[in-house]
Design goal:
TIM Barrel; globular; Glucose Oxidase, domain 1; eight-stranded parallel β-barrel; alpha/beta; Enzyme I, Chain A, domain 2
């Protein structure tokens, strides 16, 4: 329950623009010049760090943005717009850059057409600075509000202040997308598939959001509000009951102990995991630490961030997955060349293998941290044996270089049918496996996890996925296998998964108490499938 906080694209804003007098034009030009200068400095900082962590070609994209902005400012087009329209600097930037966006969009040359989105990014950056907003509208959300947006990226979710957000309403969102997944892990009810949501809801309108039923009530009547409040209180009472025993082991009726760990990425997640009795961290996503920064971290910066993140966990084991970007997880400051199908392109380990310094930064920080905490290293999106062999060689070489005599265990993320069917070949390079059911579902059923139009095909309990999971457990031999992803926290399928042989689950922190309570009611049969 809460009041709507509507955040739209500043470049698509259709309201009336404030006007200025002719005597105000010079002052607006001064504001615009200052915003331009600050934007150029930021682009230069991004380019320098991207060149170190990735390469000069990607850094060149930021330099090209800077040249574009310098050219626009020098052309006098901003000033002509100001003097001709007598609108504010924000409105002038919006008009000029939307015109340039349309020009690029109209070009037949694909390379030039790709610059259209770059123009929009420049416009948003300039307007944010003109408004004096150090952060986006997402970070400014008032306490206990319900965020209403047209589109939601993983980087948006990471920067959301959880204590302020009661729920999220988004126009379109794939049910398996990383943005949806991260929202659930933060315990934020999120609903979608509401066409024209920004035109239906005004900021300040009271909303009731039910993430279980996928329903939204706008400006509820009193009886509806009372009924909703009663359901909310019953749910909270159930949670209190489950949390009373959440720090105890999850032991089945026939004595099998199931390890229930947490998927985390930021400090709020750690607090939630500890509060809900996590046995450890089965998946720590470092990309969230990259999302939360304006430029990539250095090794020392990443070490300090990770150290601060996991220090509260004490002696609980932590599995850190190396940076997994691409697909529906773009880094806001990294302009990778566009591809026709990002989900089937360079993401996960494929991208890591292309940027050795990026790998060194992460492994260096993790090796240093492993000397004071129990860690495991996980490689994302493994498909070929060669993927994991090359990463293992890089990991072992750095361990030797840093004189680490007892390096962390090294594992592979099984997220593709190819990896699931090649476990015997991968065994010789890893100490453990982690199965990511979200991507495994996407690639098995050919249904994009971030594409709402194929939500009906994105079925993580489909028999084809279950058969692959059974193969992984059987072929893993004596190697530990952790199941993570949405399926690991769905009670209806836990009996079958435990019967397959899974003994370690990694779930959203908010699901740990109820998952443990459910496991304690089960008896694991002797069956294996």
């Amino acid at each position: 329950m809460g009041q709507a906080w509507v955040v739209g694209d500043v470049l698509k804003w259709g309201g009336a623009s404030a006007t200025i007098g002719e005597d105000d034009v010079d002052g607006e030009m001064d504001r615009l010049a200052h915003a331009c200068d600050e934007t150029l400095k930021e682009l230069d900082r991004h380019a320098e760090r991207i060149e170190v962590e990735f390469d000069s070609a990607l850094a060149g994209i930021f330099r090209a943005h800077g040249q574009m902005l310098r050219g626009l400012f020098a052309s006098g087009e901003f000033e002509r717009e100001l003097r001709g329209s007598l609108l504010t600097a924000e409105a002038a930037v919006r008009r000029v850059l939307l015109r340039w966006h349309q020009k690029f969009e109209a070009l037949e040359n694909q390379t030039f057409r790709q610059r259209a989105d770059d123009v929009l990014d420049l416009g948003r950056n300039m307007i944010r600075r003109l408004r004096g907003e150090p952060d986006t509208g997402l970070k400014a959300i008032p306490d206990h509000s319900i965020l209403v947006v047209e589109r939601l990226l993983p980087s948006d979710v990471v920067t959301l202040p959880k204590s302020n957000v009661a729920a999220v309403v988004v126009e379109t969102l794939g049910q398996g997308s990383h943005a949806a997944l991260l929202s659930r892990e933060k315990g934020i009810p999120t609903i979608t598939e509401i066409p024209g949501v920004l035109s239906l809801i005004d900021s300040g309108t009271e909303l009731l959001v039910d993430g279980f039923r996928g329903t939204l009530v706008i400006a509820p009547k009193n009886k509806t509000r009372i009924d909703f409040q009663e359901r909310l209180e019953k749910w909270r009472a159930t949670l209190v009951h489950c949390k009373a025993a959440c720090r105890e082991p999850a032991r089945t009726l026939d004595g099998q102990v199931i390890n229930v760990e947490a998927n985390i990425g930021i400090h709020d997640d750690v607090e939630l995991a500890l509060d809900n009795g996590a046995d450890g961290v089965g998946l720590l996503r470092v990309e969230q630490l990259y999302f939360a920064r304006p430029i990539p971290p250095t090794e020392d910066e990443l070490f300090l961030e990770l150290e601060g993140l996991i220090a509260p966990l004490g002696d609980r084991p932590v599995t850190i997955r190396l940076l997994d970007i691409g697909g529906d997880k773009p880094l806001p400051y990294l302009r990778l060349p566009p591809t026709s199908n990002p989900v089937l392109g360079r993401r996960g380990v494929r991208l890591l293998l292309d940027y050795s310094q990026l790998v060194r930064t992460q492994i260096g920080a993790i090796l240093k941290l492993s000397q004071q905490h129990s860690l495991r290293v996980l490689i994302p999106m493994v498909t070929l044996e060669d993927d994991i062999r090359r990463m293992r060689e890089a990991f072992d070489a750095m361990s030797t270089e840093r004189k680490i005599t007892n390096p962390p265990e090294f594992g592979a993320m099984v997220e593709t049918p190819a990896a699931a069917l090649a476990i015997p070949a991968l065994l010789q390079h890893v100490d453990f496996f982690c199965v990511g059911t979200n991507d495994l579902t996407q690639y098995t059923l050919a249904a994009g996890r971030d594409d709402p139009s194929v939500n009906d095909y994105y079925l993580d309990n489909h028999e084809s996925v279950m058969r692959l999971l059974n193969i992984v457990v059987n072929d893993a031999a004596d190697r530990p296998v952790t199941l993570c992803g949405e399926l690991a926290g769905r009670e209806a399928f836990l009996p079958r998964l435990l019967n397959m042989g899974f003994r370690a689950l990694s779930v959203a922190p908010s699901l740990i108490p109820t998952t443990k309570a459910f496991i304690r009611k089960l008896t694991i049969s002797a069956a294996t499938g």
